[in-house]
């Protein structure tokens, strides 16, 4: 099973700041990594797939990068609605797996 | 409106069975593979099962389910189901159905999620 590790667990930032979230895979997942955003009481929302492709309606401040085992989600300038939990997920191997999440909260 | 709506969750005793349903609307359901994913505070998000879009309905499950759960779909009703048997306390979770991002082949990312349904297994 591909284990995804996310860091940091919590990121405390202010609106307008840049957020950099990391996701590391225990083995190569090529480019087959996605990022989701989840707010309290809501389902996850797809932000990025295949490492760097923004899903429909996702603003350009969300930027995905990386390959193989090291991936990054960058939020270039945090908006108030971006404070949430972010998960990575790989589709390279079964079982499909998710990372434990990074919480971006208000400093 | 493109959406998925789960139902069927509730409080059950260990060893019980429960069937979750997911109603799809606003898109051509029969074109997409569908998934069940659950979420707990302790284990986070876990993929549980997938069912292919087409006749023949290829199914795949998380190994740890050990045959207790069965995914199915009815394309004529735009529904996907998760039959859960021999429920355990550790199956307590919010269960989501989700759609594959792409039509046809899978797996891909999940681009549409339901609101989730809570299953609590407790004596």
What does this structure look like?
Chain A contains no helices and 11 strands. The radius of gyration of chain A is 13 Å and the shape is globular. Chain B is an all-beta fold. The mean pLDDT of chain B is 95. The chains are: A mainly beta (107), B mainly beta (123). The interface between A and B is medium-sized, with 22 and 20 residues.
The secondary structure category of chain A is mainly beta
Shape of chain B: globular
Secondary-structure class of chain B: mainly beta
Largest sheet of chain B: 7 strands, mixed
Order of helices and strands of chain B: EEEEEEEEEEE
Largest interface, counted with CB-CB under 8 A?
A-B, 22 and 20 residues
> Helix count of chain A, per DSSP?
0
Report mean pLDDT of chain B, rounded to a whole number. 95
* Rg from Cα of chain A: 13 Å
Proportion of helical residues of chain B: under 10%
How many DSSP helices of chain B?
A: 0
Beta-strand portion of chain A reads over 45%
Outline the biggest β-sheet of chain A.
7 strands, mixed
Shape label of chain A: globular
Percentage beta strand of chain B: over 45%
Helical residue percent of chain A?
Answer: under 10%
Along the chain, the helix and strand elements of chain A come as EEEEEEEEEEE
Average pLDDT of chain A works out at 97
Low-confidence stretches of chain B: none
Any idea what the radius of gyration of chain B is? 14 Å
State the low-pLDDT regions of chain A, or none: none
């Amino acid at each position: 099973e591909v284990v995804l590790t996310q860091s940091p667990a919590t990121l405390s930032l202010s609106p307008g700041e840049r957020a950099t979230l990391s996701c590391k895979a225990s083995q190569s997942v090529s480019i087959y990594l996605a990022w989701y955003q989840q707010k309290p009481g809501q389902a996850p929302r797809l932000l990025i797939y295949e490492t760097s492709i923004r899903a429909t309606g996702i603003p350009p401040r969300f930027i995905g990068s990386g390959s193989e085992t090291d991936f990054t989600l960058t939020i270039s300038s945090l908006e108030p609605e971006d404070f949430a939990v972010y998960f990575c997920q790989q589709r390279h191997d079964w079982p499909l797996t998710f990372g434990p999440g990074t919480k971006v909260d208000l400093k | 409106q493109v959406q998925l709506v789960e139902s069927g969750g509730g409080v059950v005793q260990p060893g019980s069975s429960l069937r979750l349903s997911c109603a799809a609307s606003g898109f051509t359901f029969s074109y997409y593979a569908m998934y069940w994913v659950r979420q707990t505070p302790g284990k986070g998000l876990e993929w549980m099962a997938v069912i292919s879009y087409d006749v023949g309905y290829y199914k795949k499950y998380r190994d740890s389910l050990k045959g207790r759960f069965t995914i199915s779909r009815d394309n004529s009703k735009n529904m996907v189901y998760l039959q859960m048997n021999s429920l355990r306390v550790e199956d307590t979770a919010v269960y989501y159905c989700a759609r594959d991002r792409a039509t046809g082949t899978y797996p891909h990312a999940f681009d549409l999620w339901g609101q989730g349904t809570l299953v609590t297994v407790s004596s």
